[in-house]
C-alpha cells in the first residue's frame, strides 16, 4: 500500500480558495448543462464525449489502428464544438454579459397598458401578432431586418400594424424604450426538439428570440386567438391579459404599489374600498 501511495498525486488541503474554486467550476458546469438541456446540442455533446473516451481507451489498450484513425479526428473536436455550438455559446456569453450581472438597472416598458389593450383586442379578433419587448440585450440586429418606425407606442398603432392584409402584418414588432422601433422584423426560429409540432412559425420565432436574448415576446395566435408569452426559451400559452401584465412586471422587475387595507366600519358607516395610491 505505501508503494501505491507514492504514485498517487498529493491531495492539497481544502482551504477557502479551494472551496471557492470548486463552487465556481460547479456553477460553470451547471450553466453549461442548462444551456444544452432539452436541445439537440445535448446529443452532440454526448457523441463528442464518446469519441474522446474511445480515444482514451485505444491509448490505454494499445489499439494502434483505432488510435491512428481517431488521431485524425480528435484534434478537430475543439473546432467542431465552436461550429456546432455557436448558438449555445453566443447565448451563454450574452447571459454572462447581461447588465443585470453588473448591477445596472434596466428599463421596463413605459407603455405596457397600451400593449395590453392592443393584445386584448387582437385576441378577441383572433388576429395574429408578435410583439417583442427589449430588455438589457440590444435587438439592433433584428430591428434592422424590419421596417424602421421609431414611433410612439400606442394601442391604435399596434392594431394598425397587425391589420390582416397590410404589408407590416407578417413579422414581429420590436418595442424599445417605450417606442415601436420597427415592424415586420425577422426573428430566429427555435430548434428545440422538445416543443410541440403544433406550434407555428410565429410561436417558434417568439421562443427563438428569447433563447438568444433576454427580451420578452407576446404572441397572439391567428387560429385560436390565445395569448402566449415567451421568455428565456420558455413559452406559456393560454394566458389572460391580467396574467400577461403580471409576467411583464415580473420580467422587467416592476413592483406594483401595494393596495391600502380597508378600514373597519365606524358607527355603522361602510368602510372605504381599497385604492391604489
Question: What key attributes describe this structure?
Answer:
277 residues; alpha+beta; YojJ-like (1; 2 domains; seven-stranded mixed β-sheet; 11 helices; elongated; disordered C terminus
Into which percentage range does the β-strand content fall? 5-15%
Low-confidence stretches: 3-8, 101-107, 258-277
Assigned CATH architecture of the largest domain: 3-Layer(aba) Sandwich
What letter string, H or E per element, gives the SSE order? HHHHHHHEHEHEEHEEEH
Tertiary shape = elongated
Structural features, described:
The chain has helices at residues 2-7, 16-36, 40-61, 64-71, 77-84, 86-96, 112-125, 140-143, 155-161, 201-212, 241-251; strands at residues 129-133, 147-152, 172-176, 179-185, 216-220, 227-231, 234-239. By secondary structure, it is of the alpha+beta class. It folds into two domains: 13-96, no CATH class; 112-251, 3-Layer(aba) Sandwich (YojJ-like (1). Strands 2-4-3-1-5-6-7 form a seven-stranded mixed β-sheet, with helices on both faces. The longest helix is centred in the N-terminal third of the chain and has 22 residues, at 40-61. Mean pLDDT is 77; it is low at 3-8, 101-107 and 258-277.
Task: Show the helix and strand layout.
Elements: H1 2-7, H2 16-36, H3 40-61, H4 64-71, H5 77-84, H6 86-96, H7 112-125, E1 129-133, H8 140-143, E2 147-152, H9 155-161, E3 172-176, E4 179-185, H10 201-212, E5 216-220, E6 227-231, E7 234-239, H11 241-251
Parallel strand pairs: 1-3
Antiparallel strand pairs: 1-5, 2-4, 3-4, 5-6, 6-7
Helix pairs in contact: 3-4, 7-9, 7-11
Amino acid at each position: 500500500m505505501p508503494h501505491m501511495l507514492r504514485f498517487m498525486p498529493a491531495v492539497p488541503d481544502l482551504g477557502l480558495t479551494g472551496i471557492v474554486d470548486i463552487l465556481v467550476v460547479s456553477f460553470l458546469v451547471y450553466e453549461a448543462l442548462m444551456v444544452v438541456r432539452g436541445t439537440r446540442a445535448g446529443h452532440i455533446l454526448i457523441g463528442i464525449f464518446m469519441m474522446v473516451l474511445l480515444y482514451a481507451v485505444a491509448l490505454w489498450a494499445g489499439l494502434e489502428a483505432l488510435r491512428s484513425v481517431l488521431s485524425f479526428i480528435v484534434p478537430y473536436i475543439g473546432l467542431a464544438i465552436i461550429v456546432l455550438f455557436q448558438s449555445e455559446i453566443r447565448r451563454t456569453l450574452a447571459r454572462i454579459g447581461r447588465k443585470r450581472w453588473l448591477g445596472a438597472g434596466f428599463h421596463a416598458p413605459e407603455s405596457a397598458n397600451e400593449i395590453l389593450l392592443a393584445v386584448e383586442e387582437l385576441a378577441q379578433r383572433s388576429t395574429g401578432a408578435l410583439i417583442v419587448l427589449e430588455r438589457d440585450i440590444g435587438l439592433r440586429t433584428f430591428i434592422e431586418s424590419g421596417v424602421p418606425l421609431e414611433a410612439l407606442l400606442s394601442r391604435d398603432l399596434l392594431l394598425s400594424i397587425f391589420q390582416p392584409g397590410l404589408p407590416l402584418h407578417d413579422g414581429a414588432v420590436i418595442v424599445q424604450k417605450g417606442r415601436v422601433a420597427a415592424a415586420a422584423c425577422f426573428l430566429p426560429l427555435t430548434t428545440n426538439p422538445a416543443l410541440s409540432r403544433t406550434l407555428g412559425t410565429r410561436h417558434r420565432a417568439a421562443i427563438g428570440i428569447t433563447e438568444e436574448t433576454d427580451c420578452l415576446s407576446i404572441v397572439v395566435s391567428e387560429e385560436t386567438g390565445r395569448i402566449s408569452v415567451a421568455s428565456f426559451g420558455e413559452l406559456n400559452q393560454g394566458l389572460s391579459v391580467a396574467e400577461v401584465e403580471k409576467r411583464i412586471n415580473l420580467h422587467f422587475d416592476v413592483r406594483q404599489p401595494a393596495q391600502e387595507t380597508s378600514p373597519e366600519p365606524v358607527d355603522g358607516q361602510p368602510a372605504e374600498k381599497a385604492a391604489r395610491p
